[in-house]
Amino acid sequence: MKKLIAVTSKNSADLTALTILEGSKSSMAEKVLLILEVIANSEFPLTLENISSSIGLAKPTAFRLLNTLVAQGFVERDPNGRRFQPSAKFRLMGINLLSGDSIRSQRVAVMKRLVDTIGETCNFNILDGNEVLYLDRIETAAPIRLHIDSGMRVPLHCTASGKLFLSYMNETQIKRIVGLEPFDYYTPKTMTSYGNLIPAIKKISGQGYSIDNCEYLEGSICVAVPVRDQNNKVYAALVAHGPTPRFTLKLAEQSVPILQAAAAELENSLTQ
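and the corresponding structure tokens:
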């Protein structure tokens, strides 16, 4: 009987130790997830102070966990080395989630109805680093159309989606992400300096939509509206574009309410 009691006591102690260990792991996992959530939801790189204060975590603990996330490739430091931002690996995880079957099927259904209504090709684009990524694309049935594949990346300063994303940043953030002047030149209408770009971005910010009038591709007009998440943060752009003989500036502007209604459908689908 004594032997049985001894074994039982040891098992109880082991179980208690295991419970404490598992609780510690769970607590640490929660802290890591909170750090990732804060970084993912921020529109700009965050300092250690920003991160630790926002989740009520001691700086040494936050610093240790951030270094682990950096080592594992989920987070990276900005060029100055003092702020933290999502890594390419972390962004790709988000892109893969957006590309999941259940989410994508709803998005494609909305986009197909949109193409039928507007009569032009529509895209679902996201910001990936300092570029725009074409995540989804539904082609028009019109015989003349522009061929751009899903997965293509385009610049920020001369595309409807890119300028739209920039319109939700302040001037410091814009200059950090766009880089040095002169910007890459694509057509005679491409803006290659901040002197032209910043006023254009401010106009977009005020009107709530963005137009690319042959700035990236000659003979192509695009219009983009924002798509927001549950926190009212812009995470994507819904875009219609077509060749200028058929899709004029006037038609692009007339398409804005239709695009906004489709964007609202996409936003509602996130909460279902």
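(Above: one complete record from the training split.) The chain has two domains: 2-85, 91-270.
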